[in-house]
Amino acid sequence: MAPLAVLAVFGAMPAQAAGWEPTRSVEIIVPAGAGGASDQMARTIQSIILKHKLMKQSTLVLNKGGASGAEGIMDTKASAGDPHKLMVAFSAIYTLPIAVSLPFNWRDLNPVAMIAQDEFLLWANAEAPYKTAADYLKAVKAAPPGTFKMGGTGAKREDQIITVALEKAAGVKFTYVPYKSGGEAATQLVGKHTDSNVNNPSENIAQWRAGQVNALCVFSEQRMVYKDKITKDQSWSDIPTCKEAGYDVHYQMLRAFFLPPNTTEEQAKYYADLMKKVSETQEWKDYLAKQALKGDYRTGADFVKFLEKDEANHKTLMQEAGLAAKK
Predict the structure, then answer these.
(1) Beta strands 26-30 and 121-125, pairing class
(2) What is the pTM for the complete model shown?
(3) Cα 27 from Cα 38, distance rounded (Å)
(4) What pLDDT, in 10s, does the model give residues 71-106?
(5) Fewer CB within 10 Å of terminal CB in the chain, N or C?
(6) Are strands 121-125 and 213-218 parallel, antiparallel or unpaired?
(7) CA distance 6 to 25
């Protein structure tokens, strides 16, 4: 057969399948309430996928934040073999099993990819007289234990872990008040129902920009890198670390994705590649800068290694804080 005839034959053949892809709408399960950082991230990714036509099928974001996120996590675990459910993961995948003996381990699911790490900050109401972490914590220390209220997302989760670590570092005692989401914690701080919270940047940025709250310090080893002004005179990089303020407490949280159990490696790769494409868009880079997220894409063995190390760290933190369930 002549070369041109060969080309003609192959040209007439249908294109080979490019691998697995969704055949119906994909549910993005958020094990947290509406308005929090996980919810905001999921909806941002949803809009990026739609705008750039990164997937043929549609996506639907579902908030399942009941029982401090156990609702969404256990729903995903129970959806064995369903590749049309993609769960947004954060530190609840460690904290819930440790805190309440939830019959779950992240190894029960199919790890897809991590896309970022999130910061936590100590925030106070702007009308309060505290302009630095030291000012605020000195006032907390001078008051009877439990006088000052710290708002947070859920009980025995990352916000309470940070609160207990801060109590130990500063020699103080808060009354910890759990809410359904970071958005609710922000609203309660503005309304002066609490004295502070340890929200992510994205959960308090609107209130910070509006001059309703002050960012006192960030719980990280280094200052954040973003230098664009968010308020009239402050950028994220202007906020000192809590360690600089004299309180050596640091904590960052993964932002990642998992499929239910009994899904395939090929299905996980599809979504890992999807998130890689998302992470390369300008919209995602703008979102990272706006919300002060640390971009950190990992998949495969590198992602699993991170999960193992992060889980061990959470076990240590929660045991030291007395937040681990008694066996």
Answers:
(1) unpaired
(2) 0.82
(3) 15
(4) 999 999 999 999 999 999 999 999 999 998 889 999
(5) C
(6) antiparallel
(7) 39
